[in-house]
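TICKET #2291
ISSUE: user wants both folds in one file
ATTACHMENT 1:
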Amino acid sequence: MTKEKKKKKSFFSSLIFKILSSFVGLLLIFYLIILFIPIKECSDCFLSLDLTEKYIKQMPEFPKPDNTNLVKPDYTTFYKSNLPGFFDKLKALFGIKTKRFSVTSFKKLLDEQIEIRTQEELKGNFIYKYPVKDGMKCIIWGDVQGAFLSLARDLIKLKELELINDDFTLVREQDFAVFMGDTISRSPYTMETLGLILKLMQANPGCVFYLRGNHESNKYWEQHSLKIELDVRAQKYPNLADDINKFFDTLPLALYLQQDNQFVRISPWSADDEKHDYVKEELYSDFLLKPSDKLEKHIVKKDAVSNEEINLRVVVKAQKKREKFQQMDGLRFLPPERGVTAWTLLGAPTLSYIKLFKYFHDSFSIIDIGKKISNWIITKYCRHVIKGKDFQSKKYSFISGKELTDAQAQELKESDIEQTIQPAKIKKQKVKRVKKEVEFDDDFEQEEALGFEIEEKQKRKKVDIKKRVKIKSKDPETLKTKETEEELGFVQDVQDFEEEK
């Protein structure tokens, strides 16, 4: 009996061992299948604005970079942490897709735009001329610099304003949108930002103008965060960087809005810019004055000579911060350029811009096109990313820069009086240049160094401010003065912001 019991025990033990071994083997095979077989584990967050909104709610506003260089922040750890993992693929096997950004969808959007723009022979240094009519609206962004969450919130606001649909199409066919270049770099969400703009271009053929800025020119973006992002997140597409360069080469340098032989130039470049001498009206004024009722392009040649003079009324351009640094909330009226009204825009509340330039705002503007340029009105929409309130808006005369009430804006739209430049009061801010001789990669890095100097000066005031003002709460809105809110701010503000989220 004892021997029989031992035989039974050994039989059952070996049977259990075989079952367990087979089970572990099957699990291992299952794991390897999920690990190595490509499964579409991500839902496309750009299928609708609603999905984009859900996506940004699960993402941190200010991920911590791996370095302390705000000019060239490195977000490698953050990129790796957001790669699809085993459990994402396991969910996908059962048809459950996680709400993550899809690199595959990004590539499809990029390839589609490259194909379309190649067929249209868009390449090289060219400009657009666009005849506009009374009643049209131009939605415009300045530097976005990879501020994906901010751009998404802008679009959500535009949906509230009934200017954009959930599928990213513009509600009104006559409206159009403009991105003034430098939409990428210095952000943990550069690929998402570019993908969102590509989606807008796909949804609105011929109505979304993406201009070529500094970061889109001469492969400059490869020195910044997007290149690192591709190396981590897009390893299965080794030629994606080349495709991005192909796309950037199809972008125009400027968009000229034409109305009754008067013009508005929208471009990240100015006529006085030594770095880029293609955006000069004297090179192509004949083209601008040529009668046209549709969008037209013109290839700019440096040796071209145009004898005609044009009536340029307004320029909208990027600003060189190394020359003038003034805090803003998204839109600023500038001193005239060659006697012409000038504006600049900004919409990049990223970690770099917050810490270097104290820029805290989601922002975009809308130009309401009237019966003549004197009747045009520009409306600024901005929202403080730390305070988290709703967007605030202000209206201005597009020509004079004067702030308008709703009643004044309506009166201006109906007026037949020709508006002239009446420069708004621009606060002077003394800025000392960096004394130490430092080598920079480009003009922007000089700007950033200038920002560092101002920030350090503010930090030195910090101790005195703490002694002077007693803060009853960590909530920024309860600070006694605006000065203390900005000076004591960023570290505690981010903590409060993330806690509120």
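ATTACHMENT 2:
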Amino acid sequence: MLDAAAPAQDARQAVLRVALPAHVRVHITDDAIRLLTGLDRAARLGRTAQAEAMLRALQDAPLATADLSAEDQLLLHQLEARGMLASSWWVGDRRLLCFEPIGAMGSRIPATAQGKLRLSPMAMLRPTATGFALLAADGAARLLLDTPLPDGLLDALAQGCDLPTLVVLGLPMPVARDLLRWGIAARVLTPPDTEPQPGWEFHDMLFHHWSNVGFLDLPAAATYRHLATHPAPWAPAPRDPAALPLPPPLPLPPISLADAAAQRRSSRDPGRKALTPERLSGLLHHIAAHNGSISGTLPDGTTRSLPTRPVPSGGAAQAVDVHVLPRSIAGLAPRVHRYDGAHHALVPLGHAQPAVDDGMGWMTIALVARFWRAQWKYERIAYRLMMLEAGALIQQTCLVGNAYGLSVCPWGALDARQFAEASGLDPWREGLLGGLFVWGART
């Protein structure tokens, strides 16, 4: 821990080092220096031989600001104002604090921090190899705190603190000043009376912001990060011996897509005709049966043949399975079944349990993500892609159900715990995303 009794001495020992973060690239042109970010938003700076040399040096290793000329210091202020500079405070060979931009949203650092600040309701604390990282669900920078931390620092940040408070805790004055300034830029510190944006909860903001591509310069999309250590999870499964074959699908009535879309309503009309096995067969066939295949080449050169379904799926991973829980369908026990789209059959799961919800409808359709099928290929956006796939399955079920004259009602509050218990599935490997209730035919 820093010596709280001698902040002035620590201040003389503390050294500020700066570097360009990973998402900023230097491009030298004939008349200017352009700094490119992950969004290709460019900052245009005047070109001099000295500025060019300093920027190239910043790409290679951190520089101590005390060693830089006045001209270089001015350039650093320009970079800092644009959120294009990673800065850290050191005492000897130990880092105390680091501000690390991770995106091109312009994490602009204010010149000063006035009054008390506290941790934002949108802030989160994560462990790192050297200490902790403070991040915000809506931020584009990391504030890295290396251990050992001054006693009471996290408590002070949580309760609210100002510059004198941090100095009393043992931080050198310039380090304490930058902790507050950098915390504002990273959106992890806010005035005590600041409220989150109306309507946003922490988990919603975190998912929305961190699963989008563009705001943050972090690996995203099809990175195949597990290619070298795990086999592709898309090998076709053989027919399960316990699978129950479905009857031939009932032909769809002659209704146009335009009419089916125009007539679509979320309905809880119990209907006057039973939900027959033939109608169930047709419904499942038109929403999730395998209807072809595509070939894809992985980065290691191997080729995979992947099945397709009537609805889109990120990378054709088919990461969202369709499960049904029939309540009053001839020949089917009231238990969870997984639909096997390759063999048009139902595979019983778990044990017989009549309800995993409040019992609405003649049947519940549960949309269940096999997370690994998308996570193996996609980074940061895997869950987003599975939710999009679930949405496509819901709309397809509504359209086909309407064509069959069924009452269909999407439902976003199925009980995931009850479903896991009834199906016997591990909810962290195969988890419930949403579902629908289906009633008998209206006509």
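RESOLUTION: both attachments delivered.
EXTRA DETAIL ON ATTACHMENT 2: The radius of gyration is 29 Å.
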